[in-house]
From TrEMBL:
Identification of the protein by name: Peptide chain release factor 3
Location(s) in or outside the cell: Cytoplasm
Stated role: Increases the formation of ribosomal termination complexes and stimulates activities of RF-1 and RF-2. It binds guanine nucleotides and has strong preference for UGA stop codons. It may interact directly with the ribosome. The stimulation of RF-1 and RF-2 is significantly reduced by GTP and GDP, but not by GMP.
GO terms of biological process kind: regulation of translational termination
Native species: Oenococcus kitaharae DSM 17330
Gene it is expressed from: prfC
């Protein structure tokens, strides 16, 4: 009998969401510094001039054999074990990014206080909001002249539709930054670069703080837990100002790993002794000499023990989990033990698909499938060498199962169209087709489209036109790719009873 422990309760598993350049990397670095993982800032992404620190970083990457900057970071801080799941920035934007948000218990939203809410923050926030997971906001770059704090908070509430609860409040900004006022402890935390307090700046902030104390939102933990209120912090990641306060407060309110629904409407609790987990990401090793892939697995319940046998819910296959990698940054051994909330990396030779559930013991557990996302970029795809159809089809099928891209097929006929939410997905697909399946593919860009799923019962082949391509998705369900909003509206007028559905 496997023992259960309460160890999972000290796990904090989250992702940082932000628009590129808002300061996600810099904040991550600061968190790692606080966790004692790295010694000096400027190490992530090989930025900065400090050689020793960056070689530390490289060493971590090498030891793990995977790119740290695109996966999972684990470290201990203040009695908690923290798992940060990376959601790659702008250029790397993909369905992977979205799916990673399915494996976290909370999110930290970093916003540039000179810019406010930017498009990518909004896109990522929407996904987080749909899952109703707690979001904590960090307005960054307070050491620079930014927008008024009230203005930023107001925009946050209006554009994202979430209540904001300031936990601290800036006293000045940029050149005039005096500090932040801790509204919980009711005290000023002085900015270290400020020698003498500027009284007029301080007085102005004081008026705002009084206003907040009287009329501002009060912290409501229930609302935070359901993602209806976001605690808001101000600070500067680069100056390491307000970061520690943020981290401590965040850890106070961040949720521990919670239950997860199965396809038969059960909930698996984290203290359930049966080991259960799901695959949320598959990362291929880009090195052609190593064909292996790593399946990123989030543990939902029970304890992981190296070498344990599990069943893959999709096909009943039994697997022994011996070839595992860990993400703990300051230990070098292979992982021995992990608990709910933790992420393990399983070296995979083709067993896993995105969204797969695994479980130990006899009781079959299958979690609800990961959501499909509505792609908006599309490419028609063809094999360069028509003689190599077999490997071409094999490659497409496997890569689609891994979630690299989405596949659509014309309703009548053999035409393949690939869909993605980020351009990089196509590049990865093309690269891997060539490298792993020896199949050169040609893309014919068909541009942006609006994909909408329809009920198979509403299907009428007359719906197919050059402005509304009727396709089937991987599961065979009908989907229409509209040329633009205009053609979608036109269609909706013509077929008022047909429900057009977007995925997440
Ligand atoms: P990411 O794209 O969100 O990961 O952003 P980075 O962490 O790479 O930061 C983008 C740029 O903003 C870099 O030049 C950082 O040095 C800078 N930056 C990040 N945080 C701060 C901050 O608090 N203050 C200032 N002035 N610059 C910052």
């Amino acid at each position: 009998m496997v023992k259960t422990t309460n160890e999972y309760k000290n796990r904090v598993t989250f992702a940082i969401i932000s628009h590129p350049d808002a300061g996600k990397t810099t904040l991550t670095e600061q968190l790692l510094l606080h966790g004692g993982v790295i010694r000096q800032a400027g190490t992530v992404k090989g930025r900065g001039s400090n050689k020793m620190a960056s070689s530390d970083w490289m060493a971590i990457e090498q030891q793990r054999g995977i790119s740290v900057t695109s996966s999972v970071l684990q470290f201990d801080y203040a009695g908690k074990r923290i798992n940060i799941l990376d959601t790659p920035g702008h250029e790397d934007f993909s369905e992977d990014t979205y799916r990673t948000l399915m494996a976290v218990d909370s999110a930290v939203m970093v916003i540039d206080s000179a810019k406010g809410i930017e498009p990518q923050t909004r896109r990522l926030f929407e996904i987080v909001a749909k899952r109703k997971i707690p979001v904590f906001t960090f307005f960054n770059k307070l050491d620079r002249d930014g927008r008024q704090a009230f203005d930023l908070v107001d925009e946050l509430e209006k554009t994202l539709g979430i209540e904001a609860c300031p936990m601290n409040w800036p006293v000045g900004s940029g050149q005039l930054l005096q500090g932040i006022y801790d509204l919980q402890a009711d005290k000023l935390i002085k900015y270290s670069h400020t020698k003498e307090l500027d009284q007029s700046v301080y007085d102005e902030a004081q008026t705002e703080i009084e206003l907040l104390k009287e009329a501002g939102n009060k912290l409501d933990e229930d609302k935070v837990m359901y993602g209806r209120q976001t605690p808001v912090f101000f600070g500067s990641a680069l100056a390491n100002f307000g970061v520690e306060q943020f981290l401590n407060e965040y850890l106070k309110y961040a949720p521990a790993p919670s239950e997860k629904p199965t396809i038969d409407q059960q909930e698996i609790q984290p203290d359930d002794p049966q080991f259960t987990a799901f695959v949320f990401k598959i990362q291929a090793n880009m090195n052609p000499n190593h064909r292996d892939r790593i399946a990123f697995v989030r543990i939902v319940s029970g304890n992981f023990v190296k070498g344990m046998e599990v069943t893959l819910a999709r096909n009943g296959k039994k697997l022994k989990l011996s070839n595992v990698t860990e993400f703990l940054a300051d230990e070098r051994e292979n992982i021995q033990n992990a608990v709910p909330g933790d992420i393990i990396g399983l070296y995979d030779t083709g067993n896993f698909q995105i969204g797969d559930s695994i479980f130990s013991g006899k009781k079959r557990v299958e979690f609800e499938p990961l959501p499909t996302f509505t792609p908006d970029l599309f490419n028609r795809v063809l094999a360069k060498d028509v003689m190599k159809q077999k490997t071409y089809h094999k490659g497409i099928n496997q890569l689609v199962q891994e979630g690299t891209v989405q596949l659509f097929q014309s309703w009548r006929g053999q035409e393949y169209i690939l869909g993605a939410v980020g351009q990089l997905q196509f590049e990865v697909f093309q690269f891997r087709m060539a490298n792993e399946y020896n199949s050169q593919v040609i893309f014919e860009p068909i541009g942006k489209k609006i994909a909408r799923w329809i009920d198979p019962e509403d299907l009428d082949e007359k719906m197919n036109s050059s402005r509304s391509l009727l396709m089937r998705d991987r599961k065979g369900d009908p989907v229409i790719l509209f040329e633009n909003q205009f053609s979608l509206n036109w269609f909706a007028d013509k077929y008022p009873n047909v429900k057009l559905q977007a995925k997440l």
